[in-house]
Amino acid sequence: MHLSYYLPVKNFLNSHSQNKTTPNVNTVFKTGLFEGKTAIITGGGTGIGLRIAREMAYLGATVILASRKMENLLKGVEMITAEGGKAHAVECNIRQEESIKACVAKTIELTGRIDYLVNNGGGQFPSPAEIISSKGWHAVIETNLTGTFFMSQEVFNRQFINTGGVIVNIIANMRNGFPIMVHTGAARAGVKNITKTLATEWGKYGVRVNSVAPGIIGSSGLDKYDPAYRDFIYSFAKNNQTTRLGTEAEVSSAVVFLLSPAASFITGVTLAVDAGESLFSPVMPPVENDKNPAFEG
Questions:
Q1: What is the pTM of this model?
Q2: Which of 26, 42, 176, 295 has the greatest CB tally within 10 Å of its CB?
Q3: What CA–CA distance (Å, rounded) separates 183 from 238?
Q4: Domain boundaries, the chain
């Protein structure tokens, strides 16, 4: 069954096409940085993925929002188009190889090129390790690890092998393990290794591959969790040097930098965007402060 397809959004966006709003995208990067370029952002319809897509579109890129839920994708395209950017919605299930291939093919059909891939799509659920089922384990591994690899492989084989390109993988802060989410911790650690391996294998083709490991971010992705677990996550803010949650804009800025020519001498690394959370030590825990204001917008 054909599970990845492009849904035209002309009618959906008609009410906005003649009345674009002022972009509400805060960026430190120069206008036109990605002019004429195309980026695929998996998980691009919501949360961090959408924020990355909005910033890239604001900087001139044509962005392909790819995920399973077309409703979210259309809302994202509507927002980007209203801000004056260029975006397309392509439904894609990164757990299915056929869907990945169709998504990449559709992107090339729509834009004629792929310059950047942001592997942001993923998903997990909180659970003690002893009760995770085989089905639950494989669902998380196939989405976060296997999907990331085969998305990268398809983009490489269809485009980057000939033209070069940049991949940024969104992983997680799992340096000290990932209690209550062993499945995603294992998957994200695997992606960190894939990042190093592909950077080594594909460097000769002009391909750079890096990862960004966000700490606790105040993103719409947290809305998926039970309120009690959300409160548990929010409590982790005290473990970083800002003693607050990070913002989607702060993650997006790191991704945009790694995609940009300014990072042309950087490959195979994982950039932690966690305000030092991964360095937490009970010997000298962070002190609550307001000295590190958030970068938002």
A1: 0.90
A2: 42
A3: 25
A4: 5-15+26-279
